[in-house]
C-alpha cells in the first residue's frame, strides 16, 4: 500500500546517472527557491516596483518604501521556516509510518496546537500572537507525546496503532476545540482565522520562539536519515545491519513532531505542504531519505512562498491566506500527477 | 492485531445443503451484545429527560397506545431521530469497513478521499451563495458527488487502484477543505457558526422522510455488499492468491469502494458529514473480536451503536449550547478507540 517506499536495488551505472539527474533537479529547486524568496520580498498587496525593491536592498530607498518592503522580511522568513518544517516532517512521517496519508496532522499535532490556542483564548484570557504561539507549542508537544504513549511505538503492527492513536487524539481534541469554539463566539472568531493558516501579521518574535524546536527537529532528521534508509529494508534486515529499528523510528517521529509543532505554532495548520511535497519528492528522486530530506527542505519552502505571493496578488488589496492557496495550486497538480503513478496497489 | 487462536472454534450456519456460512463464535457473541446495547440506547433515548416516555409506558406507546404528548415525542421528536441515527451509523460503519478492507489503510473511509470535505464545500456554496435555491443537504450531496466524480476521473483507473485513489483523494480533500475554511473565515460570524455546526453533522429535527432515505439506501446496498463479501475475504489474502482463487481483485475493489461511497453519501444526505464513525467502527469491531477479516456486519452494528450513543449524549448533555452530534461522535468514538488501544497496550498483546 505504501507508495514508492519499497526499496529497489540500483546498479552502479544507474546510480551515477541518477546522481546527475538529482543534481540538476536540486539546482533547479534552489533557483526556484531563490526566485520565490525574491518574489516574496518584491510583491505584496501594496504595489512596489522592482527598482524600488532593489533600492531598498541597496539601502538607498526612501523610508516609506523601505518600511513596506521590510515588512515582508518576517513573513518571508516564516514561509521559509514553515515550508521546510512541514515538508521534512511529512517526509519523515510518511517514511516511518509507511502511510501515504501521513501528514503533520497525523500525530495529533494540529489538533494539539488548536486545543492549546483555544484553551488559552477561552479560559486563560490570553491575547496576542505571543501567547498563542506558546500555547500552540505546548499543546502540540503534549498531544504528540500522548499519541506516542498510546501508540507505544514498537513492532511493525505498532505503526498501525500509532496512526490510530494519532486519529484518536486528534478526534478527542477536535471535539473539544469545536465544542468550545461553537459555544464562545470570540474564540470562534480567532479560531476560524487561525485554522486556515497564514504567514502575514506575524513578527520576528514568533519566528524566534519556534526556532529552537525547528532546529532540533531538523538536526535529528539529518542524523537519522541513513538509519531510516535501513528501516525501509524491513525490521529484520535492519536489525541484521546493526540498526535499532524501534529507536530509529521513535527518533524519526520525534523529529517530525518537533518540526511540525514549530510550523503549526508559527503559522497555523497548513495541510497540503506536509502531505503533498513528500509525494512529489519521491516521484522526483526516489526513496533515499538523505536525498528526500534535502529536496523536501528546498521544495517545501519554495512552494509555500510562491503560494503566499500568489495569495497576496490575487485579491489585491486584500490577501488570500496561504493555506487556501497551497491547496488550490497544489491539489490540481497532484490530481494531474496521479495518472503517472506506478504500481497497481 | 492478529490474535487468531490456533484451531479457533468455527461453526457454520447452513441454509439447506447448498450454503454454509462460516461464523466465528466470538463474532456472534459480540454482535448479539452490540444489538442489546443498541436496544438499551434506544430505550434510554426515548425515555430520558423532561420529555421522555417512562420505560413502563414504552411498550404501550410503541404498540400504538400513546397519548397526545407521548405520541408527539415518539412520532415527531425522538422516534425519527433515533431511527435515522441507527440507520446512518450502520451505513457509516459498513462504509468504513468496506473501504478499509480494500485500501488496507486503518485511516480509510470515503472521508479521507474527500467525500465529507466535498459535502461540506457543497453545503457552504448552497448556504451562502445560493440561499433558498437548493436545500443545504442537497448541496452537500451534490458536493460529495462532485468530489467523488473528480477523484474517479483523476485516477484514470476509476476506483480500481487504491494507491491512486488515495493520492487523488488527498488532492480533492485539500481543495474542498481549504475552500470551506476560507468561506467560514470570510463570512459573518453567525452564518459561519451555523455552517460549522452543519459540517460537523447533525441529527436535530430529523423527520421520517430522512429515516426512509437512509434505510432505503441500506436495503439496496446491503444485499450487494453480501454478494461481494466472500470475495473481499479472499482479497485479504493478497491479490495473487485472490486472483488464483478466481476472485478478480480489481473489480471487487472497485465495487467495494463504490458501495462504500454510496453508503457514506446516503449518510451525508440525511445527517450531514458526521465525523469519525466510518473510521472507528471497523477498528473497534476488529479490536473487540481480536480477529482479522472484514467484520462487515459487526462494523455496521458498532457504527449504529456509536451514533445512537452520541446522539443520546447530544440530546441529554448539560451543556447550555446545543452542540451538533458530530462533535459527540468525535469524542465518544475517539475515547472508546483510545481505551481499546491502551487496553491492548497494557495486555502487551501486540
UniProtKB/TrEMBL annotation, chain B:
InterPro entries assigned to the protein according to its UniProt record, in alphabetical order: ABC_BtuC-like, ABC_transptr_permease_BtuC
Gene3D superfamilies in UniProt: ABC transporter involved in vitamin B12 uptake, BtuC
Transmembrane portions of the chain: 26-48, 82-100, 112-131, 165-187, 208-234, 254-281, 293-313, 325-342
SUPFAM superfamilies, A to Z: ABC transporter involved in vitamin B12 uptake, BtuC
Keywords from the UniProt entry: Cell membrane, Membrane, Transmembrane, Transmembrane helix, Transport
Signal peptide positions (record): none
Topology in membrane: Multi-pass membrane protein
Location (main, coarse): membrane
Localisation per UniProt entry: Cell membrane
Pfam families listed in its UniProt record: FecCD
UniProt record similarity statement: Belongs to the binding-protein-dependent transport system permease family. FecCD subfamily.
Protein name: Iron chelate uptake ABC transporter family permease subunit
Amino acid at each position: 500500500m505504501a507508495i514508492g517506499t519499497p526499496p529497489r536495488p540500483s546498479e552502479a551505472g544507474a546510480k551515477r546517472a541518477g546522481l546527475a539527474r538529482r543534481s540538476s533537479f536540486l539546482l533547479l529547486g534552489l533557483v526556484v527557491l531563490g526566485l520565490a524568496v525574491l518574489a516574496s520580498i518584491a510583491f505584496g498587496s501594496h504595489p512596489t516596483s522592482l527598482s524600488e525593491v532593489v533600492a531598498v536592498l541597496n539601502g538607498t530607498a526612501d523610508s516609506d518604501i523601505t518600511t513596506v518592503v521590510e515588512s515582508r522580511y518576517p513573513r518571508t522568513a516564516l514561509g521559509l521556516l514553515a515550508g521546510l518544517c512541514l515538508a521534512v516532517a511529512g517526509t519523515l512521517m510518511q517514511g516511518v509510518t509507511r502511510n501515504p496519508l501521513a501528514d503533520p496532522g497525523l500525530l495529533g499535532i494540529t489538533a494539539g496546537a488548536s486545543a492549546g490556542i483555544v484553551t488559552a483564548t477561552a479560559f486563560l484570557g490570553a491575547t496576542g500572537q505571543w501567547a498563542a504561539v506558546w500555547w500552540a507549542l505546548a499543546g502540540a508537544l503534549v498531544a504528540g507525546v500522548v499519541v506516542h504513549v498510546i501508540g507505544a511505538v514498537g513492532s511493525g503492527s505498532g505503526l498501525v496503532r500509532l496512526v490510530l492513536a494519532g486519529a484518536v487524539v486528534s478526534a478527542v481534541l477536535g471535539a473539544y476545540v469545536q465544542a468550545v469554539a461553537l459555544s464562545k463566539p470570540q474564540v470562534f472568531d480567532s479560531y476560524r482565522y487561525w485554522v486556515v493558516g497564514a504567514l502575514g501579521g506575524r513578527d520576528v518574535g514568533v519566528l524566534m520562539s519556534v526556532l529552537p524546536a525547528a532546529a532540533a527537529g531538523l538536526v535529528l532528521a539529518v542524523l537519522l536519515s541513513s538509519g531510516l534508509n535501513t528501516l525501509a529494508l524491513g525490521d529484520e534486515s535492519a536489525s541484521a545491519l546493526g540498526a535499532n529499528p524501534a529507536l530509529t523510528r521513535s527518533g524519526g517521529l520525534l523529529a517530525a513532531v518537533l518540526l511540525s509543532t514549530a510550523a503549526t505554532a508559527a503559522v497555523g495548520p497548513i495541510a497540503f505542504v506536509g502531505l503533498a511535497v513528500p509525494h512529489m519528492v519521491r516521484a522526483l528522486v526516489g526513496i533515499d531519505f538523505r536525498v528526500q530530506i534535502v529536496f523536501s527542505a528546498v521544495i517545501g519552502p519554495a512552494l509555500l512562498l510562491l503560494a503566499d505571493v500568489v495569495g497576496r496578488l490575487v485579491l489585491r488589496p486584500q490577501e488570500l491566506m496561504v493555506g487556501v492557496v497551497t491547496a488550490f495550486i497544489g491539489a490540481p497538480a497532484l490530481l494531474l500527477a496521479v495518472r503517472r503513478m506506478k504500481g497497481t496497489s | 492485531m492478529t490474535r487468531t487462536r490456533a484451531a479457533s472454534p468455527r461453526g457454520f450456519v447452513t441454509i439447506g445443503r447448498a450454503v454454509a456460512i462460516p461464523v466465528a463464535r466470538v463474532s456472534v457473541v459480540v454482535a448479539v451484545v452490540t444489538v442489546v446495547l443498541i436496544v438499551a440506547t434506544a430505550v434510554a433515548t426515548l425515555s430520558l429527560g423532561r420529555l421522555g416516555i417512562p420505560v413502563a409506558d414504552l411498550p404501550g406507546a410503541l404498540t400504538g397506545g400513546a397519548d397526545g404528548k407521548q405520541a408527539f415525542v415518539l412520532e415527531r421528536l425522538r422516534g425519527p431521530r433515533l431511527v435515522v441515527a441507527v440507520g446512518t451509523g450502520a451505513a457509516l460503519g459498513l462504509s468504513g469497513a468496506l473501504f478499509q478492507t480494500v485500501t488496507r489503510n486503518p485511516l480509510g473511509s470515503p472521508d479521507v478521499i474527500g467525500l465529507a470535505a466535498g459535502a461540506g464545500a457543497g453545503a457552504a456554496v448552497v448556504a451562502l451563495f445560493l440561499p433558498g435555491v437548493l436545500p443545504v443537504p442537497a448541496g452537500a450531496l451534490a458536493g460529495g458527488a462532485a468530489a467523488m466524480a473528480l477523484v474517479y476521473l483523476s485516477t484514470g483507473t476509476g476506483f480500481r487502484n487504491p494507491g491512486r485513489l488515495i493520492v487523488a483523494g488527498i488532492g480533492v480533500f485539500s481543495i474542498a477543505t481549504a475552500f470551506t475554511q476560507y468561506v467560514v473565515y470570510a463570512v459573518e460570524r453567525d452564518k459561519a457558526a451555523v455552517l460549522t455546526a452543519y459540517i460537523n453533522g447533525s441529527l436535530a429535527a430529523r423527520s421520517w422522510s430522512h429515516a426512509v432515505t437512509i434505510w432505503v439506501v441500506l436495503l439496496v446496498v446491503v444485499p450487494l455488499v453480501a454478494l461481494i463479501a466472500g470475495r473481499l475475504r479472499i482479497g485479504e489474502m493478497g491479490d495473487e492468491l485472490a486472483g488464483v482463487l478466481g476472485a478478480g481483485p480489481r473489480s471487487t475493489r472497485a465495487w467495494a469502494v463504490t458501495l462504500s461511497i454510496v453508503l457514506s453519501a446516503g449518510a451525508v444526505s440525511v445527517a450531514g458529514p458526521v465525523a469519525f464513525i466510518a473510521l472507528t467502527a471497523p477498528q473497534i469491531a476488529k479490536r473487540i473480536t481480536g480477529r482479522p477479516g472484514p467484520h462487515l456486519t459487526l462494523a455496521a452494528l458498532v457504527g449504529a451503536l456509536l451514533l445512537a450513543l452520541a446522539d443520546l449524549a447530544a440530546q441529554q448533555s448539560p451543556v447550555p449550547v446545543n452542540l451538533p452530534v458530530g462533535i459527540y461522535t468525535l469524542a465518544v468514538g475517539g475515547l472508546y478507540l483510545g481505551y481499546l488501544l491502551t487496553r491492548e497496550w497494557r495486555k502487551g498483546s501486540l
